[in-house]
Protein 1
Amino acid sequence: KPTLGYDLINDTTGAKYTPGTWSRNGVYRYLYPKDNASGIREVQTSDGNGWWHEPNLDKYWVNYEMNHTYKHRVVDNAGNYSDVVSLHYMLDWTAPTCGTVVGASTNWTNTEDRYITQNCNDSGSGCTAVNKTYTTDTQDARITIQDKVGNTNTCTVHVYIDKTAPIVDSFDYEYLSGYAICNNGFTYIDSPSYSFDVRVYNARTHDV
């Protein structure tokens, strides 16, 4: 009976693609039918909904996302069929999206660390949550999520940590002028001295 060989080549790296594994690149498919007796009548393909004539033998570019099996077979001029070749393509080049966030806050803290989990969503190869710990002054941070084939996306999370005490670099004050006092017919200018404390208020954590 006839036989059917094949090659699957990554369209970017040139390496062989293994059916049933995730890839972020397209695939070039080559089919090699062979029959040493009556000869090849045709190659047929099925996506699970019947068989049809396959005209693309030399090179066919599979360049769309999928998680699907295509089957191929050969029929010779005597009506013999080859064994069915099943090729399962798993192609994904869409970046994951940012999911829910656990542990983030827009309330400033001057004592606590933040333990933040950034979840992700991916309908293709799938992705896993990313956990980050923040211990130093940070307002907003960026977390990179990645699916199983390397497609990435960046998510912004609110951390709001400020553990650094405020400092006074310089300050301005208005001089308080003296004032006139009348006492037993004499007028003189009294310039009293003043003492004052300067306190700096941290608007983020409400520390003084």
Protein 2
Amino acid sequence: AICLQESKLSNNLIEESRTLIKNYTLSGTSNDAHLSQRERLRYKEMKGVSTLLRNDHQKEQATVRYKKGSTISHTRTVKIKIDDKRELLIINTYLPTRGGKRGYNNKFEEAIEEIKEVIEQNSTLKTSFLVIGDMNYCPWGHKKDKKRTKLMQKFVQDTGGKYLVTKKPSHKSRSHSDTWCHLDGAKVSKDMQIEEMRILTPSDFPEAT
């Protein structure tokens, strides 16, 4: 699976683009579904997530369960059956930025609760999970943001496993030149292990892709 964040795709565009990329099927979540028509016209924030799953894995997909009445706006989840004894829950997420906006940590907490709820609703003895994406949290750069730090610490504690980031920083600040941070991350269940997380360069992609 290929997980994309800040895709900025409306629900209509997601549907129109489902089979646009050869050998893959696109699915996604757009916050525009939860806005009024007036708000939707002004919608400019880089939100939304999209997941590309190879067509030869489509038959291995299992149904993702959601709590009745839940609003899913920060994640896109696929569940893949590995074999009769194991299944993998892949939660693609884009957590709200700090951005100096009022109430930003309330939205961050809302997103964290959404992820926890998806894990809880789909966890069995044979389920492993991977939460991956733009977490908008840097373990070093956001130390002074005590609320966000506590929310992340509690998230890791409540769900078990580890939280991982790349060795090199993955984001350059848009407002502060020469400032880099580790905003991308992965949260894995305690039965999983990621051998390497690294930042891709153009040389990692085949020509003409």
Protein 3
Amino acid sequence: NRWTYTADALYSHTLYNDFPNLQTYTYGGGISALYSFAFFSKPAFFNLREGATQTFLKNRNYVWSNALSGSFIVIPHNRLRTTTTYRWTYSEYDNNGLEPDFTNRDGFTNAISQQGTVYLNDKRTLYLTTGYDYERGDPLGANYVKRAHGFQEILHFPIIEKVEGDINFKYKVSDYPKYASFKDRRKDNQFTLVTQLTRPLTKFLTLAL
């Protein structure tokens, strides 16, 4: 049994085709503590992470978020891994909108997710991950009370030398049961496709693009 500690940082810049002047910049980082142990004689891990992000819209503060998450990871077979995660998030926006009882987005979000990963080679560089998550958002404004379900597929594969790639597809459907600004009840369907390249630079540092 032992603890391992890591730190991470991120930066993202988002552009919108339909609104070229609308750009967002996000900075963030966090720390994680990973505890390894045996669970019914199988390798298992508990990971605790605390992280925060700050997003700017058109160079002005837009939203600050702080998240605390815990993950329970079990490896029942050398070709299989399961992960259960709970995440608590608090978000605070730059303004409360014109009608705070409906438009205030400050508040808490609770989410739980389940993932299963199947390794397709002995080196564990080729694998497929399937996941599901449920998210419950309870901000102060009724318009943003949210119940969401998400489904995810991730393919990770080796490319050349030590470079590896990821293709990440996610579908998320969000229901807003208290939405009051329009007569029709709001329901969002979101499709996300992300590709990524990674390469370890040292034993403790990995480059991701």
